[in-house]
Design brief:
8 helices, Rossmann fold, 205 residues, binds thymidine-5'-diphosphate, alpha/beta, single chain
Length: 205
């Protein structure tokens, strides 16, 4: 059993989850809690190299199996090097994306079998599950507009249909497991989203 608390944030591109993670971490640190903030892909040095391959628009030929395995490889390193040690120290670990992103993007988005995603990731994480997953929910049109204002990466360049399938996937995952998931309305002003996130997290502290 881990001593710390593992919280993940999920959502489509431009949902604002990264902003919310920063604000939540600041709040928890101010309250005297030890917090580790991390992300996927790219939460480690090895992961940063994997992330560069995954998001490079030059690799448009990437096979979907290659993609799912690279996300899982990033995750294996992330769990071993960052998440488990932080939980063992007793930290609250907040990760920007985790396995649910692979289910939403590679199963619901790409159409790879769910079993495959679960199996591959089981090897990567060896049973490590978040205690709480917060879905920052925004309509695809809103998220994509925010996310694609500057440069777009290989995944962001996918069709609106793809991103709609991903969003529907996240909604389905949240509906299927209400014990672990909480859905927060990400279309509200940043402070209001933060208040909702705090209300959810304080239930666990
Ligand atoms: P990133 O720039 O970190 O996006 P965001 O700020 O929206 O999290 O890029 C991560 C991209 O990788 C994003 O498009 C989602 C995608 N992704 C997957 O397809 N599968 C996964 O398992 C993970 C972790 C991310």
């Amino acid at each position: 059993m881990s001593a710390g608390l593992f919280i993940t944030f999920e959502g489509i591109e431009g949902s604002g989850k990264t902003t919310q993670i920063v604000q939540l971490a600041e709040h928890l640190k101010a309250a005297g809690r030890a917090v580790t903030v991390t992300r996927e892909p790219g939460g480690t040095k090895v992961g940063a190299a994997i992330r560069a391959i995954l998001l490079d628009p030059d690799f448009s030929e990437m096979d979907y199996h290659t993609e799912v395995l690279l996300y899982a490889a990033d995750r294996a390193q992330h769990v071993a090097q960052v998440i488990r040690p932080a939980l063992a120290r007793g930290d609250i670990v907040i990760s920007d994306r985790y396995i649910d992103s692979s289910i939403a993007y590679q199963h619901y988005g790409r159409g790879l079998p769910l079993d495959l995603i679960i199996d591959v990731n089981e090897h990567a994480v060896q049973g490590l599950k978040p205690s709480l997953t917060i879905l920052i929910d925004v309509p695809t049109a809103v998220g994509l507009k925010r996310a694609t204002e500057v440069e777009t990466d290989r995944i962001e360049q996918e069709s609106a249909d793809f991103h709609n399938r991903v969003a529907a996937g996240f909604a389905q995952l949240a509906a299927d497991d209400p014990e672990r998931w909480r859905v927060v309305d990400g279309t509200q002003p940043i402070d209001a989203v933060h208040r909702d996130v705090l209300a959810v997290v304080s239930g666990l502290l």
